[in-house]
Amino acid sequence: MNKQRKLIIAGNWKMNKTVAESLALVRGLKIELANIKEVDIVICPPFTALSEVSKAVIDSNIRLGAQNMSENGYGAFTGEIAGGMLKEFSCRYVILGHSERRQFQKESDELISKKAQAAHANSLKPIVCVGETLAEREGNKTEQVLETQVKGSLAGLTKEQMVETVVAYEPVWAIGTGKTATTAQAQEAHAFIRKQLVGLFDENVAKRVRIQYGGSVKPANARELMEQPDVDGALVGGASLDARSFCVFIKNSI
Ligand code: 13P
Asked: Which end of the chain is less packed: N or C, by CB atoms within 10 Å?
């Protein structure tokens, strides 16, 4: 598939996998994905598996990401993880503002923007998540919600940092529900997000930012989603927990 931007497909393992299970999954991925050059492949295991997984993916085409980080540097922040700590495990990416954290940890756009700035200060590329709930979509508030989240969560980033930031559009109603957005719904939301990036940054930045789709993606819907002009990859939940489904998803995307 000839895309304007290189696809980036990331597996968000969420709160799943022991260290042993993580290593078994990585072994499968390394074998199956060794020849893939067309896609940036990222896996985001839980913090507890980062150390072992980072050793397992050395010399492979699989890059490592974390699922969250603190907006602060090192210091008295019990239970938090600093960006510098993620760098120790060769993390290159960090998922920020996932809807589960927005919902359960009450993360605000303002906090997410601070985390995104802290990520860049540590040379980590943030994957910033946005997306509307079912009630918001049904109330015709999708664009308003996306506009607010994009503006708030990406506030304070320079143009150079924005180009190195990934945006993930994850409609909350599609996460873990088996209900994928239609390709038309995904394309419409992605184009809208890109339009916001033109206003907040400029045309050139907007053209270069990769926007992932997330929400019940599976091997069967990979191709039609990736064919949409403004869909530049995927953030995969459930289907990334199994080597076969993640690998087939990636292969079906190209
Ligand atoms: P599912 O693919 O399990 O719906 O999860 C999507 C998601 O939240 C990825 O971050």
From this structure: N
Nearest to 6 by CA among 187, 190, 254, 177: 254
Cα(216) to centroid(ligand 1), Å: 6
Residue 223: exposure state from Cβ atoms within 10 A (0-12, 13-18, ≥19) = middle
User: What positions carry a catalytic annotation?
Assistant: 98, 170
Sequence-distant (6+) residues with CB within 8 A of 246 are 11, 29, 236, 239, 240
- For the entire predicted model, the pTM comes to 0.97
Distances (CA, A) of 199 to 159, 189, 203: 12, 16, 8
- Establish whether residue 215 lines the binding site of ligand 1, counting it when its CB lies within 6 angstroms of any ligand atom: yes
pLDDT digits (tens, 9 = 90+) for 69-79: 999 999 999 99
What structural domains and CATH numbers belong to the chain?
A: 7-253 (3.20.20.70)
Residue 159 Cα to ligand 1 middle (Å): 28
pLDDT digit string, tens, across residues 128-170: 999 999 999 999 999 999 999 999 999 999 999 999 999 999 9
- Bridge partner residues of 236 (DSSP): 11
Q: Measured between alpha carbons, how far is 66 from 50 in angstroms, rounded to an integer? A: 8
Element (DSSP H or E) covering residue 50: helix 47-56
Task: Using the Cα atoms of residue 116, residue 178, residue 213 and residue 194 in order, give the sign of their dihedral.
Answer: negative
- Could you tell me if residue 251 is left (phi over 0), alpha (psi between -120 and 50 degrees) or otherwise beta? alpha
Distance CA 64, CA 41 (A): 9
